[in-house]
Specification:
The complex is a heterotrimer. By secondary structure, chain A is α/β, with parallel strands linked by helices. In chain A, a hairpin with a 2-residue loop joins strand 4 and strand 5. In chain A, helix 4 packs parallel to helix 6. Chain B is mainly alpha-helical. Helix content of chain B is 71%, strand content 0%. Chain B is built from eight helices and no strands. Chain C is an all-alpha fold. In chain C, helix 2 packs across helix 4, helix 3 packs across helix 11 and helix 4 packs antiparallel against helix 5. The longest helix of chain C has 29 residues. The chains are: A alpha/beta, B mainly alpha, C mainly alpha. The interface between A and B is large, with 73 and 58 residues.
Chain lengths: 479, 239, 196
């Protein structure tokens, strides 16, 4: 079905991403491509769906064959009939604004009869439980819901090969379960599926073959069963994530010992205009100086909770008291700092150092370098923030928060789309912040991060449901 | 329960009629073509978008616009002849509102009620080339994206307490525009890649699941538009 | 690789045109709102050309074929028309788009200097918005009769006929400056960040 014959690829102006790949993929198999960031997973996928060489330019050597034909000879438009693609970023892969048209989009481009497309959509909705997402505005959907629509769009085209590039990066447990259903369907239909992914736990029941990549080469090939029998340590040694498929919401953490003060939240009530109230918490005490994880499903308002906490939502009239000081919304903007999921939004200048300097009350280069040193950013101090890796960008944002002397740091999904070693890096960063006496509140659906470093776990549903209990311990205990 | 794709047209009129109305409003309301003799047509065109908003059950917007138009009409009657400077300013703002609001409403209505896919299909029926249709449909989809990205950046600036660089104007613009344009570029590249892998290309025979066809109301509106143009050209004779 | 050599615009090029036109339109819209105040009307040839240079120069890095610049200008012109400027913007935009296209091709779609020039030329559609006032002054004000002679006087005083070439030159010069700023920002941010 798909054959790589001595394929090497190097992006225009970049270093080699694939080196001498020689491999063939049998029809009807589900193949997982995994490995640490930058190992060439995504490049492999792009070779199969034709974006290399038709869209991303570079130096391609060897031959990639799909259905016995070389991808360089087939225009992308033709190739797209055989190969459907789902991408990582749910925000950027839509051409339409409404969901139904988006699902039909590919088939319409192939010139299929409208009646047939409609039949397919109706069948798909029955099979995959999409009903509640039909006829909606895509801009109003959560990341997980958008990803479901993207999968449905590809499924509707009924291609023989389906490629997925880190489809779960932005999904919660529920979203991942939806993805599993899709995979089960494709497996039953006998599709050839290629998935590049960091989170492997959810895929274990479906995969037939695994390619573990490193530095542009296939380091190991194994069957799905052999892969499933690897121990956690063996996976981590290969730079891979763990294999326990856990729901962050239902995980238990050991109880907290000792106290370092309290943060009192009052009148936390918020709902977007014209929509139902997301949370209504009259009073809750949280422990200070800890790493608090807020968990809950996609679209339940976790991010909004953080936005209210740091004072971004004007219509939330909450108060926060810490160390005898009470802060209203405007004051909180000076004491809280939120590292957004998309860090690109909060880096403004052309130098990392500058980014720290402008956050200081009075520019103090020595102190700024000290902060950068602590975060392992000294070497990149002169680089452009947007040219850094995702983890480094995150740390630059943290550096600017530290420079402006914030006491409470908020993180929105700090580990989405990260491999094992980068996840550990974030965990260490959070732990360091805790050691410096900062309070960290984060929103996550990453069970591994939760186990690794968080000291308190609260689910937003519980906070809401047991709003009459005023301490976090009480909210945590019992159901 | 079985799901059926709802093929009922999402809006009262066809995308082509919407474009025609947008065009008519820009010529006769904004452009003021024809002058005095077109007053009746002028006010009809002012109120068409309002009625369309009503058909979408946008009650609040409907009442506000009727109120604004009413007041401004009154003001125009009242503020005539030689005016003091502040009255001129008032008259001007009233003028601007009544001139611009219909086009804004019509554009909003068009954007809100036209599916990208319907728009392309209607465009194809008008024999517009893909070179025009693809960019325009991207623009459609891209306005909300720009809004989303900008509001994220604004939030981030608020949080950093940015009156950066002592609030120099050039830096304020730079700090907002650079991340915005960078984000939009990245999203754009990914959007292109995704659209291409789903078979979008120039010159393909494309189908559309939505029913794009002209109905009675469309013909009625088109008739009215033709009448307006004819009246503008020869109507002077009858007055 | 037949399509890479082809000079016809493909979907990727057209999507790029759409994206940057959307960004330019939003910027113009934001800064053009200043023009509603009579005194600020003149600032239209100053501020938008300065600001829009940034996305435009980034857009030019994506232009490798004939037609993209022209297409963007036509779309901008159409949007200006529909949103209440005059159709002169569409006509002028098309013409200047063609000229800009030709200029940029002279530099083999690479030269930054010619890129700046191409920008300054193509952005002249902003100046075209004043056409209505200069060449149809009577008609322009006949529909505005009820705003008091004083207002009309103040606007006409601000915009005597000889202002038209002055505005044209101003538009062009600020276009050059905007293009220059655009290349600077491109170098300072986008090239360093690896986006270009």
């Amino acid at each position: 079905m798909i054959r790589f014959e001595h394929v090497s690829f190097c992006y225009a102006g970049g270093s080699a991403s694939l080196k001498e790949i020689d491999h063939s993929i049998k029809p009807g198999k589900i193949t997982l491509i995994c490995g640490p960031s930058g190992c060439g997973k995504t490049t492999m996928i792009r070779c199969v769906n034709g974006l290399i060489p038709h869209f991303y330019k570079g130096d391609l050597q060897g031959r990639v064959l799909v259905k016995e034909r070389q991808t360089t000879d087939i225009p992308l438009q033709k190739l797209s009939r055989y190969v459907g693609s789902v991408f990582q970023n749910p925000r950027s892969q839509f051409f339409n604004v409404d969901t139904t048209s988006e699902i039909a989009f590919g088939c319409e481009n192939f010139g299929m009869k409208p009646e047939e497309i409609i039949d397919r959509i109706e069948k798909l909705v029955r099979q995959t439980n999409l009903r509640s997402l039909m006829d909606r505005n895509i801009f109003r959907l959560s990341g997980g819901e958008k990803q479901k629509i993207a999968c449905a769009g590809v499924a509707c085209q009924e291609p023989e090969v389906i490629t997925l590039d880190e489809p779960s990066a932005n999904l919660d447990h529920e979203g991942v379960c939806g993805l599993q259903k899709m995979l089960a369907l494709w497996k039953k239909q006998g599709k050839t599926v290629l998935i590049a992914e960091h989170r492997i736990a959810y895929l274990l029941p479906y995969i037939d073959e695994v390619l573990i990549m490193e530095d542009g080469r296939i380091r190991e090939e194994m069957t799905g069963e052999a892969f499933a029998s690897l121990s956690e340590e063996e996976l981590h040694k290969r730079g891979l994530r763990g294999k326990t498929f856990e729901n962050a919401v239902s995980m238990e953490l050991p109880p907290l010992k000792g106290e370092r003060g309290k943060i009192l939240l009052e009148h936390f009530r918020f709902g977007y205009k014209g929509e139902k109230v997301l949370f209504d918490i009259p009073r809750i005490e949280l422990p200070a100086g800890e790493i608090i994880a807020i968990v809950g499903g996609n679209g339940r308002g976790k991010t909004t909770f953080l936005r209210c906490l740091c004072g971004m939502e004007k219509r939330c009239k909450a108060l926060v008291t810490m160390n005898g000081q009470t802060w209203n919304r405007k004051q909180r903007l000076k004491h809280f700092y939120m590292v957004m999921q998309d860090v690109n939004h909060q880096l403004f200048t052309d130098r990392v150092l500058e980014e720290v300097l402008i956050s200081q009350e009075r520019e103090d280069k020595e102190k700024a370098m000290e902060i950068l040193g602590k975060l392992d950013l000294e070497e990149v101090a002169e680089r452009h923030p947007l040219s850094l890796s995702g983890g480094q960008k995150q740390r630059v944002a943290v550096a600017s928060a530290l420079a402006s002397g914030r006491e409470i740091l908020l993180f929105d999904e700090p580990t989405s789309g990260l491999d094992h070693s980068h996840m550990r890096q974030v965990a260490r960063l959070l732990d360091d912040l805790k050691k410096q006496g900062k309070t960290v509140i984060l929103v996550t659906h990453d069970g591994e991060l939760l186990k690794e470093v968080c000291t308190v776990k609260l689910s937003l549903e519980d906070l809401n449901r047991k709003a009459d209990l005023f301490s976090y311990e009480a909210v945590q205990q019992g159901t | 329960m079985d799901y059926k794709v709802d093929l009922k047209p999402a809006s009262l009129i066809d995308p082509r009629t919407k474009l025609l109305l947008l065009f008519m409003i820009s010529v006769f309301v904004l452009g003021g073509a024809g002058g005095e003799k077109m007053t009746v047509f002028y006010w009809i065109l002012v109120f068409v978008p309002v009625l369309l908003l009503l058909s979408e059950r946008k009650w609040k917007l409907f009442f506000i616009s009727v109120l604004v138009y009413g007041c401004s009409y009154g003001a125009q009657m009242f503020l005539k002849g030689d005016l003091r400077p502040w009255e001129s300013v008032l008259a001007l703002s009233v003028y601007v509102i009544v001139k611009f609001l219909p086009a804004v409403f019509m554009a909003r209505y068009t954007m809100a009620t036209t599916k990208v896919s319907e728009f392309i299909a209607a465009g194809k029926k008008m024999h517009l080339p893909d070179t025009l249709l693809i960019p325009v449909s991207v623009i459609f989809r891209y306005f909300p994206t720009i809004g989303e990205e900008y509001s994220c950046i604004r939030d981030a600036m608020k949080m950093r307490g940015i009156c950066l660089g002592g609030g120099k104007a050039s830096q304020m613009v730079e700090y907002r525009m650079v991340p915005l344009i960078a984000d939009c570029t990245v999203i754009g590249e990914e959007l292109s890649a995704a659209a291409l892998t789903r078979g979008l290309e120039v010159g393909i025979q494309r189908t559309c699941i939505w029913n794009v066809k002209l109905r009675f109301l469309d013909y009625l509106i088109m008739g009215f538009c033709i009448f307006t143009v004819v009246w503008c050209m020869i109507g002077g004779f009858f007055l | 690789m037949n399509e890479t050599n082809s000079n016809k615009l493909n979907a990727h090029d057209l999507i790029n045109v759409g994206i940057y036109t959307a960004i330019m339109a939003v910027l113009l819209c934001v800064f053009a709102c200043l023009g509603i105040i009579p005194v600020m009307m003149l600032s239209l040839v100053v501020i938008p050309p300065l600001v829009a240079g940034i996305p435009y120069m980034l857009f030019l890095t994506k232009v490798k074929k004939f037609g993209m610049i022209l297409l963007m200008n036509i779309l901008m012109g159409l949007m200006l028309w529909v949103t209440g400027m005059s159709y002169y913007a569409t006509i002028v935009g098309t013409i200047t788009g063609l000229i800009a296209e030709w200029i940029y091709r002279k530099g083999e779609y690479k030269s930054k200097k010619l890129g700046i020039l191409a920008y300054a030329v193509s952005i002249l559609y902003i100046w075209a918005n004043y056409f209505g006032i200069f060449y149809n002054a009577e008609q322009y004000f006949s529909t505005r009769q009820n705003y008091g002679q004083e207002y009309i006087d103040s606007v006409t005083a601000l915009l005597p006929p000889w202002m038209s070439p002055v505005l044209l030159i101003a538009n062009f010069l600020f276009g050059l400056l905007g293009g220059y700023i655009g290349t600077k920002v491109l170098k300072k941010h986008f090239e360093k960040a690896g986006i270009v």
